[in-house]
Structures
1.
Amino acid sequence: MELENHAEDLASDLGIDKEEVKADLQNLVEYSVPIDEAKQSLRRKYGDDSGGGGGAPSSKSIDEITTDDGNVTVTAVVLTAGERSIRYQDDDHVIVEGRLADETGVIDYTAWEDFGLSAGDTVTAGNAGVREWDGEPELNLGESTSLSFLEESLEVPYEIGGDAQIADLQTGDRAVTVDVQILESERRTIDGRDGETEIQSGVLGDESGRLPFTCWAPDPTIEPGASVRIENAYVREFRGVPEVNVSEFSTVSSLETEVEVGTDATIMEIGEAVASGGVYDVELVGNVIAVRDGSGLIQRCPECNRVVQKGQCRTHGSVDGEDDLRVKAILDDGTGTVTVVLDDELTEQVYDGTLEDALEQAREAMDQEVVADTIREKIVGREYSIRGHLSVDDYGANLDAETFEENDLDPTVRATRFLEEVRA
Ligand SMILES: [Zn+2]
């Protein structure tokens, strides 16, 4: 909805001048206040606490709450409560996020005030704001919410606490607890919002799968090979895949017993994998239908590592490019396509030669395109099983391959399948 429409809504609800509301709204939005917050605070300013169209907020069970509700009163059990620091109107602000449940369902919440919520508490949240996130209702517990703790606990058919398996984690999950083994970890310095900061990043896993992580306050317990319990982590998307975030509010403790890490990647159809918006560790099976331009023998900028065209880097201008090998191949399984990216090692494997061999072939032919042509002849029309990291963004779906293996099918079966593919 446009600001204009929000202003009109508010003005008619509150019975005041639209231009006045619009100016206030604009101001708040410019300060990066989410639109729903902004509207609520204006409702308070102009003396309508109800949120909707007048009257006190009604008590609702969780399954009755819809994104059309303005404010509601809910009695529920706190399943999870995780602290997180956000920058809000130029100030660092600690918020608490998690999930609430009653007999009828579960809902995400954000508490903007310190109510002292912890997992297992039964509470009544009076006048909680309802906002929409990704099409679903969420609760905002803020200044105008009255929160009371009940002595008698509510029985709910949901597990209290944030215990989770890696494979089940999704972008947006909060206050999760995982038992994992650290597979890779490195410290690096980034230019953060408060200047240079040291962070830790790597890969962790459990029996169900693997995911990348970032730890915003480096922790000596997190080292390759260590088995640890991480409490109060949250999951956000980074470079197109979910990433476990360990913050200053998370707790990391060593585990006595080693956490086993599963070795199988999830096998998915390409269409399904792309629709999911990105998968860290996935296996896709399909036919290579083309090898894209910019494959084979290429040159990279020594400054930024980007591929240079005719000695020109888009950022660094004329550079002395460094030779490298890579393949960008289009994989199709009938449900969708992805661009598979092979690094220098996998490219040497499919080319069946080294960078030196490629340079020599190019010198002899006086054309470096011959390397891509050779690779094209070897892999187009064949079926492969490819394991890697799938990221999906505005530029398309890319699978960063870790393994690239040909499926040994009978050649006639393969040819028939490929023809069917092409005809489809
Ligand atoms: Zn460059």
Note: The chain has four domains: 3-45, 61-149, 166-254, 266-423.
2.
Amino acid sequence: MGDSALLPCFVCGDVLTNAVPDVENQPHGGTEFRTYGCYGSTFWDSFDNQELVLNICDGCLRERTDRLAVRTPSRGFDGTLVHFGDAEA
Ligand SMILES: [Zn+2]
């Protein structure tokens, strides 16, 4: 634990600082993404609850909103998935 988040931005490689002290990975100006993977991936599909973790900085997210979607869990069992710009706040 330290000033730097555990991981740099997955896209641009920038080092991210932690938003709060004494945490392992709480990027300031970025988001930590976690996944168990999914059926269909030939890279990551965890069967023992291991998570794949990556950080993406806010700048890289903003530059690529056309590649993002938002899932709203309250709108169905798995939620409704809509493209980022079409999501209601
Ligand atoms: Zn970045």
Note: Residues 1-89 form one domain.
